[in-house]
Amino acid sequence: MAPEYSNAFWNMPEIASNKITNLLKTRQGNTWTMKLAMQRNMAYRRGQPKAIHDRCPLCNKSDSAGHMLGGCSHKEMKALYIARHDKAMRKLLKQVLSGKHGAHYTIDDVGTLEGLQQLGVHGKRIPAFILQDDDLPTQDSHDCTQEEQTRMHERDKLRPDIMLVELTDIEREAYMTGEEMPLLNATMQTNQPRKVWIAEGGYCTDTRYSDKYRRKETQHEHLQTLLQARGFEVILLPIILGFTGAIYKTTMSALSALGIEKAQAKKLLYDLHAHAIQTHHTIIKLRRKLENTKQPKTSERPRNCMQPFEPP
Predict the structure, then answer these.
(1) What are phi and psi of 277, to 5 degrees?
(2) CB neighbourhood size of 181 (10 A)
(3) In what order do the strands lie in the sheet with 195-204?
(4) To 5 degrees, how large is the angle CA 270–CA 272–CA 273?
(5) Residues of the chain above pLDDT 90, percent
């Protein structure tokens, strides 16, 4: 963890005192959840019996601060997790596009195609001049339409948050003039492998960084295998951020690998830190609003919990 950025909220006047209070409660393990109420043999809410289970009042899974901030499967909570992730990735994307790799072919899956193109993104899906249809797995079938649909489905599943593909000046100029792009060679004019950078963002409980990093590292193994089979050099860059604004050293090095200059990377890290804290407060407020509407019954035994939700 990088303390300079992870604790920067103390010197950020835009972070209100009530948000810092909520933040410190989470960092100290005191965010009020059903699990904490049960552990302390207390009622979850005033006027109710003592809690006898640790189930979330919204989705019925085991409740905790980590669950509240990234694991609840209630549709409104999930929507807020996704919005947090997407906004952070757009902040990252803007810096990538203004950095030294910004002129390369850029694929991004965060937002609408129209909005992304206004930022300078080339597309949301990997085009055939990078991975041909024949490169994609399909089931043996005499039905050409079925094979085509299978390949389209496979291509649609290859959706990294940000992907940069190295281009030569000639290739870049050809693309900008609207020429049809031929299949890219796996090597550049220098006979070095063509580089592909894949960045995938995610949030986690501040102390569960390693688990989240490994999951994000393996999320695009299939895409990595397909690109390496074509001869590309693939650079995987998990961008992990903490629920309460923790910034990790691997995130700092990932920004450098994505071509973001040091001064801009520093500003971005402070921005991502502030965004995490602002959203942390918003998520807790939404949870309180929803549970006050739902009226959790802490004295009843819980039903079977729902399927787990993996936040972005």
Answers:
(1) -70, -40
(2) 15
(3) 105-108, 162-165, 195-204, 233-242
(4) 60
(5) 71
Residue 304 has pLDDT above 80, yes or no: no
Q: What are the φ and ψ backbone dihedral angles of 230, each rounded to 5 degrees?
A: -85, -10
Average pLDDT, the chain: 89
Element (H, E) at 203: strand 195-204
> Any residues with CB less than 8 A from the CB of 164 and at least 6 apart, and which?
96, 101, 104, 105, 106, 107, 196, 197, 258
Q: What are phi and psi of 163, to 5 degrees?
A: -140, 130
What confidence tens digit (pLDDT) does each residue in 158-172 have?
Answer: 999 999 999 998 888
Q: Which two tokens stand for residue 254?
A: 């990932």
pLDDT value, residue 87: 96
Residue 215, CA distances (Å) to 54, 99, 210, 308 in order: 26, 27, 9, 15
Residue 62 dihedral angles phi and psi, to the nearest 5°:
-60, 130
Average confidence (pLDDT) over 57-66: 96
